[in-house]
């Protein structure tokens, strides 16, 4: 054992910054501010757990996207490593974990008239590489040190073979071998009547906690990947409650990029310096976003070029290894089964939180990225014999449909049985003043639906133009493709572009600049687009699931500040005259 000088004060006094999105032009821009955010995220109770309450955010107001805590002497996760990590990233998912643990502490230390009360034990499960250890673990450590020292005088942080005892009374950090802290140190403290909380990080290929690691009168949370070998024995013995942490979303990652490339100054800058920094930030975000489109929102991979290359190769190998005999094993997407058996599959899926019954959290697998989703769909639909992706996805996971809904929603249009139901359930959305209704081309010719898929590669990779094919579902490899999530073309009864927009919201209006960008992108993919598109009508189908707020009104195309008045007028006229809109709800019963 030995004392780590200055580490306690460094963590306890970690400096706060936060990144916010503020309105600017057509979208939002990022800003870094000092200190704690004046308006933290709000959460609402859902059964026995919490979820972020987006309903309290005001439209047009600045939005908190990321909190950053900086410890000059690093965090327990990296103590003793050759690579120092000083910044702890706290997004709404990490904050949510602390709010739940904080609730456990309140229950623990509230008067309940029992001397044998045992605090709730937790297991935090998430996709490998998203920051459970560094971010969630470090933030829990910080907040536990802030907690009332009389009630909770000791915090223990365990990672692999190293353990750290943080004593709030002496304000010291003492490092022990993990077997020693479990065998003698914790038990000695407990016998002296002290209460403590343990953060146990099951490092990659680490050792799961022994069921006797800590006394039941201490609080404990285990941080782990979804590999059940890491925690299930301990969880069952302790009746620990699972917490599922989602991957960071696109905006979270953008905020991380903005923080990493800001120059440390939050005051006004010289205009030239500010412009230079903005260019560097934009270039860095473009690089990270491109990586994220291919390997998913996994910080370990997208912020490290070497790790990115390794993961990209692994994804390619995993997809190539899929065949008709093992498709179900590889596509364990959307199942209540906690993880897939073969290690290679971990590279193409991410772990997602769903509420199963009465707000009980469970985890479910979903494609790790838009590119992986498109590639997997292409691979499965080109097999011999072909695999029915839609039925594969909808097999035995009912209430988890929304997790893979973008995947299943687009795949539904390649399933003849599903198309027969969809074409009968389509509801036309009409703009004000349009007097005549029109059946969708799918209703007039349901057999013309796509039967296979192709991937529209990222344009920055300079793909060769392709010939337009009917009966093919085109899946963009990027997640920010304008206007639609997928598209296909039908030749009969009339030449039609059908765009699929997967949405859960009750409205999904667009802008003239988005429509123009979509036209430009499509023209860049297909040979002879100008001639092909002359007499082509458009249909937009808004695809929703049963728990969505149904779209019932015409979705507008609003003016863009980046276009001229004449350009706005021309595109809006096209939208109202040439575009037909429909809504359909996809259910597991299809």
UniProtKB/TrEMBL annotation:
Residues 8-117 form the Retrotransposon hot spot protein N-terminal domain. InterPro entries: Crinkler_effector, RHS_C, RHS_N, Trypano_RHS. Pfam families: RHS_N, RHSP. Coiled coil: none annotated. Residues 123-429 form the Retrotransposon hot spot protein,C-terminal domain. PANTHER family: HOT SPOT (RHS) PROTEIN, PUTATIVE-RELATED (PTHR33129:SF3), PROTEIN KINASE DOMAIN-CONTAINING PROTEIN-RELATED (PTHR33129). This is Putative retrotransposon hot spot (RHS) protein. It comes from Trypanosoma cruzi. The lineage of its organism: Eukaryota, Discoba, Euglenozoa, Kinetoplastea, Metakinetoplastina.
């Amino acid at each position: 054992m030995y004392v780590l000088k200055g580490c306690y004060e460094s963590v306890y006094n970690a400096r706060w910054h936060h990144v916010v999105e503020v309105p600017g032009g057509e979208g939002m821009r990022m800003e870094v501010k000092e200190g704690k955010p004046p308006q933290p995220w709000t959460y609402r109770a859902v059964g026995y757990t919490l979820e972020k309450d987006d309903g309290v955010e005001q439209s047009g107001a600045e939005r908190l996207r990321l909190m950053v805590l900086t410890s000059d002497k690093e965090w327990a996760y990296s103590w003793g490593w050759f690579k120092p990590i000083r910044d702890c990233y706290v997004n709404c998912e990490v904050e949510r974990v602390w709010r739940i643990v904080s609730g456990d502490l309140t229950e623990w230390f509230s008067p309940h008239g029992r001397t044998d009360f045992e605090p709730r034990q937790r297991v935090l499960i998430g996709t490998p590489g998203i920051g459970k250890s560094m971010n969630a673990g470090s933030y829990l450590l910080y907040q536990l040190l802030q907690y009332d020292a009389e009630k909770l005088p000791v915090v223990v942080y365990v990672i692999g073979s190293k353990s750290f005892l943080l004593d709030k009374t002496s304000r010291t950090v003492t490092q022990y071998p993990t077997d020693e802290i479990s065998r003698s140190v914790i038990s000695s403290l407990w016998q002296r009547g002290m209460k403590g909380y343990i953060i146990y990080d099951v490092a990659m290929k680490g050792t799961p906690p022994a069921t006797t690691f800590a006394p039941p009168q201490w609080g404990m949370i285990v941080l782990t990947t979804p590999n059940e070998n890491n925690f299930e024995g301990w969880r069952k013995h302790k009746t620990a409650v699972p917490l599922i942490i989602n991957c960071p979303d696109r905006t979270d990652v953008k905020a991380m990029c903005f923080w990493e490339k800001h120059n440390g100054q939050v005051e006004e800058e010289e205009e030239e310096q500010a412009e230079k920094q903005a260019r560097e930030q934009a270039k860095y975000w473009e690089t990270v976003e491109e990586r994220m489109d291919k390997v998913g929102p996994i910080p370990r991979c997208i912020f490290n070029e070497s790790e990115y290359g390794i993961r990209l190769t692994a994804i390619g190998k995993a997809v190539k290894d899929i065949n008709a005999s093992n498709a179900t094993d590889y596509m364990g997407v959307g199942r209540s089964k906690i993880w897939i058996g073969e290690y290679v599959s971990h590279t193409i899926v991410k772990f997602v939180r769903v509420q199963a019954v009465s707000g009980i959290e469970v985890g479910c697998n979903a494609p790790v990225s838009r590119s992986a989703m498109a590639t997997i769909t292409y691979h499965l639909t080109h097999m011999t014999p072909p695999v029915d992706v839609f039925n594969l996805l909808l097999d035995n996971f009912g209430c988890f449909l929304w997790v893979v809904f973008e995947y299943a929603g687009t795949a539904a249009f390649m399933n003849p049985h599903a198309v027969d139901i969809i074409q009968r359930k389509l509801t036309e959305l009409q703009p004000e003043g349009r007097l005549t209704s029109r059946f969708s081309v799918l209703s007039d010719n349901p057999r013309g639906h796509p039967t296979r898929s192709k991937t529209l590669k990222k344009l920055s990779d300079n793909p060769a133009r392709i010939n337009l094919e009917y009966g093919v579902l085109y899946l963009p490899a990027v997640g920010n493709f304008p206007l639609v999530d997928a598209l296909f073309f039908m030749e009969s009864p009339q030449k039609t572009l059908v765009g699929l927009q997967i949405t859960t919201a009750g409205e999904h209006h667009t802008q003239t600049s988005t429509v123009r960008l979509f036209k430009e992108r499509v023209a860049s993919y297909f040979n002879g687009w100008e001639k092909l598109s002359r007499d082509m009508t458009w249909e937009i189908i808004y695809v929703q699931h049963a728990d969505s707020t149904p779209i019932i009104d015409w979705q507008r195309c609003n003016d863009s500040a980046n276009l001229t008045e004449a350009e706005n007028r021309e595109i809006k006229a096209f939208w109202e005259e040439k575009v037909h809109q429909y809504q359909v709800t996809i259910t597991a019963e299809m």
